[in-house]
Amino acid sequence: MATESERIDWDQLDMMADGYTRDFVEIYREFIGQTPELLDALEKHLRDDNLAAARDAAHKIKGSSANFGFVGVSGPMSRLEMKAKEEGSLEGAPEAMLEARENFEGAKAEIREKRGI
Prior knowledge:
By secondary structure, the protein is mainly alpha-helical. It is about 80% helix and about 0% strand.
């Protein structure tokens, strides 16, 4: 699990937030609401041993997480995606999922504490 300073790219988050407008907060809350569902879907693909679907789901989570500065989520998703793409393997996926989920929850808490959203 990442430490507090490794979970979030604050510069990226603040740039995306552009002053933490109402529109940004709405989009951020959508991201926060949808990410657990996307992680659940990825876990289902992993259980089903569906390499292509797992790779695509990891890619989607990686991208949205990176946009919001959630590097503690995008990092493990990137590793999972690359392992699936380059090696045709889902080895290490359970660890990547655990790391991503823990970092997601930790990042949400940090942002709530430091930015009030």
